[in-house]
Amino acid sequence: MAIKGPGLLREQNQKKLIHLLRKHKQTSRKDLAKLMGVSKNTISLIVDQFIHEGVIKEVGIKDSRRVGRPKILIELNADAFKSLGVTLSNESVDYVVTDYCLNIIDKGSDKVDSRQVGEVVACLTRLIQRTKQAHDGLIGVGIGIPGIVNTDEGIVYVSTKLEWKDVPLHSLLTQSAALPEHISLTIQNSVKMTALCASLTEELHHNPSFFYIRIGEGIAGAFFQHGQIWDGVSWTSGEIGHLPVEPAGPQCSCGQTGCLEQMISIRSYAQWMSEHEQAPTQEQMDDLLKQYGKYLGVALISVINIMNPGLIVIDSPYNSNAYFKQASLNYLAANALEIPLSKTKIEFNEQPYMQSLGAAVAVIHNYEH
User: Fold this and answer.
1) What is the DSSP string of 2-53?
2) What is the pLDDT of residues 100-136, one digit of tens each?
3) DSSP H or E run through 84
4) How many CB atoms neighbour CB 277 within 10 A?
5) What b-and-e string marks burial along 160-197, b requiring 16 or more CB atoms within 10 Å of the CB?
6) What pTM was computed for the model?
7) Closest Cα to residue 121, out of 178, 189, 194, 188?
8) Phi, psi dihedral angles at 17 (to 5 degrees)
9) Counting CB atoms within 10 angstroms of each CB, which of 12, 43, 234, 239 has the fewest?
10) Are 191 and 221 in contact (CB under 8 A)?
């Protein structure tokens, strides 16, 4: 039954309060009332309830030397809530269990033939039941799928990697795992979930918009704005991998030629390596990655002009190569429109973001919204 009226407002205030405590780590009732724009009495009722339930704890006094009534500091009991984040690859189900502050408390990988939907559902069901028994306070399960996913209904329309088509995963899992109402199930494209993981970093957290790009066996992106991933009407937004960047390039599965994914994905790199009878020299590899950087720059111009993000995050195995990064930036400097480029920061992250952790973040993100 849908919550209405005062009950809905109370639930919204509870979630907003938990979000602020997760964000600020420690604060006081008075500061929370100011941040939320509600009365101190409203905050006290919520905090007292959460203290009684073990969700919040008092941890000391702020500015005890000041004149007047001291502020009692409160913080989340991060262990009160748990999140299970899962991603599917060709041969395994990779997972993490986190507390509410996204500290990893358990992780692992279960072998499975991911092409077999029935086997995947059975494997996920065992994992969920195992997690429920081992970790109290599970609030949700997030599952990242490489493919086009209807997030609203949990339907995997197409996953080339898994060889799935029109799989109602949410419905299958809900029945198989017998999830109670208080445990949510979120199914989303794995790259978009990873973008949520990226959003937790300090710089991205304070940026109202960024575009996340992941280069792997395929190439995909996600646009994050004002705390939300933009899915698009067909859940296919962010498909930067299918931007044509080389007119003379090979044909892509999408029907175009020279798509970014065809030119610089890990598969393309592996194919290039296989064409050499002897290991390529460092100079040959640098020349290749210069070309990869240029192709990425071509695609980034479209992102900058159309999406106009404040920040672009490139999550790539080539980021350790200075030629790759510089070639991208040089192409942008020479060809992008001056004003939008000047307002867009380009970041090549040093360590890849963990996809299963992104799935756990999605659970908490959805819990707070």
Assistant:
1) ---HHHHHHHHHHHHHHHHHHHHSEEEHHHHHHHHTS-HHHHHHHHHHHHHH
2) 889 999 999 999 999 999 999 999 999 999 999 999 9
3) strand 82-88
4) 5
5) ebbebeebbbbebbeebbebeeebbbbbbbbbbbbbbb
6) 0.87
7) 178
8) -65, -45
9) 234
10) yes
Q: Label residue 300 exposed, middle or buried (CB < 10 Å: 0-12, 13-18, 19+).
A: buried
Given CA atoms 90, 223, 201, 56 in this order, what sign does their dihedral have?
negative
Do strands 228-230 and 219-225 pair parallel, antiparallel, or not at all (unpaired)? antiparallel
Q: In this structure, what token pair is assigned to residue 350?
A: 């040093």
* Amino acid identity, position 68: G
Q: Which residues contact 353 (CB under 8 A, 6 or more apart)?
A: 194, 197, 198, 214, 315
Place of tokens 């039941």: 129
The amino acid sitting at 231 is D
> Which one-letter amino acid corresponds to residue 234?
S
Instruction: Indicate if the pLDDT at residue 203 is higher than 80.
Output: no
Is the CB of residue 76 less than 8 Å from the CB of residue 66?
no
C-alpha 339/C-alpha 313 separation (Å) is 19
* Rounded-to-integer distance, Cα 109 and Cα 92, Å: 6
- Alpha-carbon distances of 267 from 82, 272, 355, rounded to whole Å: 36, 9, 19
Question: Hunting for tokens 């509870």 — which residue is that?
Answer: 14
User: How many other CB atoms are found less than 10 A from the CB of residue 134?
Assistant: 12
Write the CB contacts of 117 (distance below 8 Å, at least 6 apart in sequence). Answer: 164, 167, 169, 172
Instruction: Give per-residue pLDDT as tens, 155-168.
Output: 999 998 899 999 99
Rounded-to-5 percentages of helix, strand, coil across the chain: 45, 25, 30
- To which residue do tokens 């071509």 refer? 298
Question: How would you class 239 by CB atoms within 10 Å of its CB: exposed for 0-12, middle for 13-18, buried for 19 or more?
Answer: buried
Beta-sheet strand order (sheet of 148-150): 148-150, 155-159, 164-167
How far is residue 346's CA from residue 333's CA, in Å, rounded to a whole number? 12
